[in-house]
């Protein structure tokens, strides 16, 4: 608290509030608008934020239930949104678990063990993490195209390929978990090892139970990143019933046939849970993201 | 912090506990199985002649086997799976992309030479002169085909319904048309799809296929392979010579036949990017825009985020928690959804933004057809998407500034603006620099925004590759590789390699500035 206070403090506070409110309005407007549109009748309706002609048509279609209009015509859902959401969740859960498994064990080694090539490997991971997978899509496509000839379930147009490809992003998570492990005192594990525990046992029974919070954070982070992943999914997945939400959602706003209302309902339906998860866990997620960043 | 001598951790002797023994054997079995599976892949890829992939899996299998058998590498066992993941899905694709950039790999040159040759040899043509005229006859429910050759030979087919799709249908010699009513041309046309799938076999084993609405004709292989590797076109006797420099079969007249196969073409792709007018023009334009886009995005998001952070750190302001939550909303909403929301809002015909602008000022900007407006729109949307990250970073850094600096400033009569410009900004800019570089690199490659919002359009006029005025280098690369009818992977890989170099430079700079300790 500043000890020296200018007299104009009230005016300034008011000004700050007004500026912030104005900015918040600007930021939140698109989100409110989309919620409003999802309840409007028709695909091109315009009007005030509170819908004048309330209709659940878009929501019904987004949930996959055919909608009967007032004039008796039945509208079929244009896209399998729920299936896409399910695909997204399936891929995200599988890849997050895989990432969690691999990054936890590696982070343990990086945090607690001394071995050859540790420094260069860690630095190398940081560098390679900056190369976006978009650039090597051709190579990834070729890899899975050929792998699919020999291994079922790992070819183009399979979820297995997408899950496996997400392993390229483990570096960020290794750094996050490593930072957390280093903040835990090692004497407990040392004590366990003096009592005859193996390295693996010390890790499994001492360190892991202590690290549940960070593991949750990494899981959620990997989950959200996987849900939002677009470039790889757009190349690896082809059939409409295989698509993830991130790839499928854009079909609502294809150039020749824009379904603004249907999109709005699907967007709120699928975006809201992710947004809520993010906001609920923001303290840890933001901590993880920015801490990882500050360290490099 | 302590370090364990890992190899001491696992006892060498046979464990007393059966459960532990079994898990250990299960682990060994798993590793062994994986190694065998990987070696099988190595052989499979090697037989296909895809040595890059064979090498990749060989390295993987060897790495796995060595790490999990040598006791000295006990610590590496923990790291190996993650490193293998990065190796296969980050480093290998990177190297492979660089490799592709020196080849003519594209949709016309996709498969290896052997498979292209096999494709040519599998081609057939319908030999004229030996054609049969056909007429369908129906009797009751069964339909049979009656075929007549020019020399008067006549054949009759088994009932059509008895043949499974794709299976050949037997023909028997016949003297006269079968009983039943002949079907007219209209019904032939109605059954055309069914008839086109039909394969008829004559008693002497020649296969016939539909050659027209009136005739079936035998299919004969079109090419014959010669001992020197060339092919002879049996229709006209011309020969096709495999040109291993360009990766195509060429006729005597020098005409290339597709498909070809991938061959190394040296630095041709790079030469195209740097010297071919039709490629270089768009490339340079996109290059400049990519830098401008990434730079301006960083400046705008930092400016907005910084000002908001300063406001939110003000002690006398109430309701900071609520403001904070509302302000990071754009960060919490999945980007692919918010970008599409903006795509709808900016729609030129019925989008809310143009409705509001028309109501207030009577203008309807063409956000998607005018290049400069499209770029402006991208920057607006990207600022909306990106400022929360900067806000969070700045808030974290501002908190670490010692409070007494502001006290001293207040004593000396400094106002909030002076504080912001003279104390806060200089103090956080230094730790912020590596993060700004990372943000620059991220936006440099902000593929999702461009693809979902504008798709790169409006297009650059006169470009020989698909290139848009709002394309970034990454989306340009993506379009060359996956959207263009030509699917020119080689050219795309060359541009990707150039971007790799830029990213590597940025990444190195970042590492230097942030002084990572490992």
From TrEMBL, chain A:
Pfam families: BPD_transp_1 (PF00528). The keyword Metal-binding does not apply. InterPro entries: BP-dep_ABC_trans_perm, MetI-like, MetI-like_sf. The chain crosses the membrane at residues 20-39, 91-110, 122-144, 156-175, 206-228, 263-281. Its main location: membrane. It is a multi-pass membrane protein. Part of the ABC transporter complex MalEFGK involved in maltose/maltodextrin import. Probably responsible for the translocation of the substrate across the membrane. This is Maltose/maltodextrin transport system permease protein MalG. It comes from Halomonas koreensis. The gene is malG.
TrEMBL record, chain B:
InterPro entries: MalF_N, MalF_P2, MalF_P2_sf, MetI-like, MetI-like_sf. The chain crosses the membrane at residues 25-45, 51-68, 80-102, 286-314, 326-346, 377-398, 432-453, 489-511. Its main location: membrane. Keywords: Cell inner membrane, Cell membrane, Membrane, Sugar transport, Transmembrane, Transmembrane helix, Transport. It is found in: Cell inner membrane; Cell membrane. It comes from the Bacteria. Residues 287-510 form the ABC transmembrane type-1 domain. It is a multi-pass membrane protein. Part of the ABC transporter complex MalEFGK involved in maltose/maltodextrin import. Probably responsible for the translocation of the substrate across the membrane. Belongs to the binding-protein-dependent transport system permease family. MalFG subfamily. The complex is composed of two ATP-binding proteins (MalK), two transmembrane proteins (MalG and MalF) and a solute-binding protein (MalE). This is Maltose/maltodextrin transport system permease protein. It comes from Halomonas koreensis. The lineage of its organism: Bacteria, Pseudomonadati, Pseudomonadota, Gammaproteobacteria, Oceanospirillales. The gene is malF.
